[in-house]
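Following up on my earlier thread - several people asked me to post the actual chain instead of describing it. Fair enough. Here it is, all 111 residues.
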Amino acid sequence: MTDKLPGFERFWEAYRYKLSRKDAVKAWKKHGCEDFADQVIAAIPAYDAHLAANTWKNKKNAATWLNGECWTDEYPTEQPRQTGRRSIVDVARDYIGNSRNDFGFAQSVKH
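Reply from S.P.:
Thanks for posting it. Predicted structure:
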C-alpha cells in the first residue's frame, strides 16, 4: 500500500490500466487527489463507457488521465448521428457481392 494514500490505492484498482504507477502517484499527489478521491474514482466508469463507444480511442495512461484532470470531463451521452453516407468499402462489397453467380464466380456486369 502506498504510504498514507488509501484513495490512490482505490483509484489504481479501479482504473485497470496499470502502467507507470510511480508517475501516477506523482500526479495524484500533485493534484491533491487524496482530498477528493471519491470524485476521481466515480469518474472512471463514464470514461470507460466513452472509450467503449469510441473504440478508435485508446485508454490514457493513469498519470496522463490525472494530469489532464480528466475526472472533470463531460462525455456526450448520445451516439453520434449517422450521416447516411456509405463508405467506398461498403459500395465495393455490394458491387462485388452482386456481380457473383450462384457458384461464387465473378460474372460480367452490364452497365
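DSSP finds six helices and no strands in the chain. That should answer part of your original question.
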